[in-house]
Structure formats: structure tokens, C-alpha cells
Amino acid sequence: MGKITDRMRRQADDNRQAADWARGHGNAQRAKQLEDRADELESGRVTDVTDQVSALISWGLRRR
Q1: Can you tell me the distance from the alpha carbon of 19 to that of 29, in angstroms, rounded to the nearest whole number?
Q2: Which among 55, 52, 43 has a CA at the least distance from the CA of 11?
Q3: DSSP states of 46-57 as a string?
Q4: What pLDDT is attached to residue 1?
Q5: Which residues, in sequence order, are CB contacts of 57 under 8 Å at separation 6+?
Q6: How would you classify residue 26: left for phi > 0, otherwise alpha for psi between -120 and 50, otherwise beta?
Q7: Backbone angles phi, psi at 25, to 5 degrees
Q8: How far apart, in whole angstroms, are the C-alpha atoms of residue 64 and residue 62?
Q9: Which of 21, 40, 56, 64 has a CA positioned 20 to 30 A from the CA of residue 14?
Q10: Do residues 42 and 5 make contact, with C-beta atoms less than 8 angstroms apart?
Q11: 13 C-beta neighbours (distance < 10 Å), count
């Protein structure tokens, strides 16, 4: 299992808030998708690779 980062925890919270909004506006299917994604983020099965991708992009731009 992976480590849950603060960034992932914030995204899960954002997804849950968006799910509440979607459900309140009659879109239960979208709300379920957002809640499922939040559960996935909190499960530890998702790896946060944001920093690695950012470093790779920076490296590529320096090589130009």
C-alpha cells in the first residue's frame, strides 16, 4: 500500500464536497463517481507521482 499524501487527502476532501454538490443538484451518478475516487485516493492504492512528473518536465525543459 502507498502512502497517502496531504495533496491526496485534500483532493479526496474536494471530491467529497463536489459529490455533495452534485447530489444536491440531482446528479447522483456523478456524486457516486466522485465518492468512489475519494475512497480510492484514501485507500493507499493510488501513488502520488506529482513531484516526479514535475521534476521530469523541469528536466526536459532545461534540456531544450
Answers
A1: 9
A2: 43
A3: S---HHHHHHHH
A4: 62
A5: none
A6: left
A7: -105, 20
A8: 6
A9: 56
A10: no
A11: 13
What sign does the CA torsion over 23, 29, 34, 37 have? positive
Q: Encode pLDDT of 42-64 as tens digits.
A: 998 888 888 899 999 999 999 87
Going by C-alpha positions, the residue among 22, 24, 54 that lies closest to residue 38 is 22
**Could you tell me the sign of the dihedral formed by the alpha carbons of 37, 40, 42, 47, in that order?**
negative
Please state the pTM of the whole predicted model.
0.75
What does the alpha-carbon distance between residue 37 and residue 47 come to, in Å, rounded to a whole number?
Answer: 13
